[in-house]
Write the structure tokens for this entry.
Amino acid sequence: MTTRLLFFALVAFAFACAAPVPPAPQQSQETTRGDADITGVITGMQANTIRVEATPTESRGAKAVVTITGATSIRDKAGNAIAASALREGQTVKVWYNGQVAQSYPLQAEASEIRVQ
């Protein structure tokens, strides 16, 4: 009986001492985003897609056809939001993908963020 009472007392004490863990503070996307999925030059544009090539002068290398949606964040060098219409062929950009990536060549993905360099 004493052992059970001691056991329940210890369990109750453990629960009473365990404070809830507060949620982690929100960090900016800048610090949590990590490395871009592709960094390269815009070599083509059509409707809501851009073609990004890491090394456009080579036939091989990282290449992606990236879809821009209403949820895509597009930013200039200073971090200011810009419209997709401000993107131009020849600009260097960093792109982060959102969701699934079609493993074709060039790969195809939806952009969550595009940053002009």
Observations:
- The domain at 36-117 is CATH 2.40.50.140 (OB fold (Dihydrolipoamide Acetyltransferase, E2P)).
- The radius of gyration is 24 Å.
- The chain has one domain: 36-117.
- The longest strand covers residues 92-102.
